[in-house]
Design goal:
About 35% of the residues are buried. The N terminus and C terminus are likely disordered. The protein is an all-alpha fold and about 325 residues long. The two termini are about 20 Å apart. The protein contains 13 helices and no strands.
Amino acid sequence: MVPAETRPDDPNQAIYAAWRAESARLIGALTRMTRDVSLAEDLAQDALVAALVQWPATGVPDNPVSWLMTTAKRRAIDHFRRADSLRRKVAELEHARGREEETMPDVESPVDYIEDDVLRLILLGLQALLEIQGSRMPARLDEDGAPVLLEVQDRNLWDHLLIRRGMAALEKAGQLAVRGTPVGRYFLQASIAAEHARAVRAEDTDWRRIAGLYDVLTRAAPGPVVEVNRAVAHGRAYGPGAGLAVLEEVDPDSLGDSPLVPSVRGDLLERAGMHAQAREAFIEEASRTANAGERTVLQRRADRNRSLGSDPDEPPQPTRA
């Protein structure tokens, strides 16, 4: 979504940046450790999944690459321990079968098949999410290093190869979903990112579909960040009053000192013509961010709202879709 797009501590952006820069070294080190390239790739993906689950709750670590490497190595150790335990169990079963004429039960159950499909959908959605979000990296900063909002990015700078790869991964995940495999947060987040990628111009974005996807996401993976981004989507789809109504339901303490809530509130208030309140929100956000470039952008938005005039007497009434 628009505000989260510019945040240096955004987990998805941090994961993609770390993966793009160090994936070859990560997989290479794991290959040397495991002597199995396929296993190394699986372990690296497991670490990515763990990061996307944990970082939104715990924050982006100081050294994301080191975190991914440590997590993957722990997964490797667990893998070898399970493999060793399995070998012992198999040996015991073979020994028991040699003594007794018993038929071993069929271990391939429908549950295994379902779990495989779920795992594939989670990985085909994670891949799509990383590819599509990563495609926007070249346009996220201006010449001075200041963040650029999604809606004003130069879409010619987006990496269209990554977009095509992400769309292909999303299509494969969609095929699993059509067969009845439950979808999760990565598939839904990738579907949202795909709507932005499909829009040739920012004004072509299908915000109503994005709002609907966020409504589903908030049920599949509820949380304050999802709700804040849902407020952005509803604000674009149905007017700033609708977005503010969603934002009002977010606990202001749930995100700590994060500038995300005042950022979205300022954007919605500005769109509603409530410039004095928008200016206050942007000033509050600027005081919370540690990024100098972002602080400059926010101060500019605050100054712009100061020059745009007084608020209307009546604020827009919150509306529901």
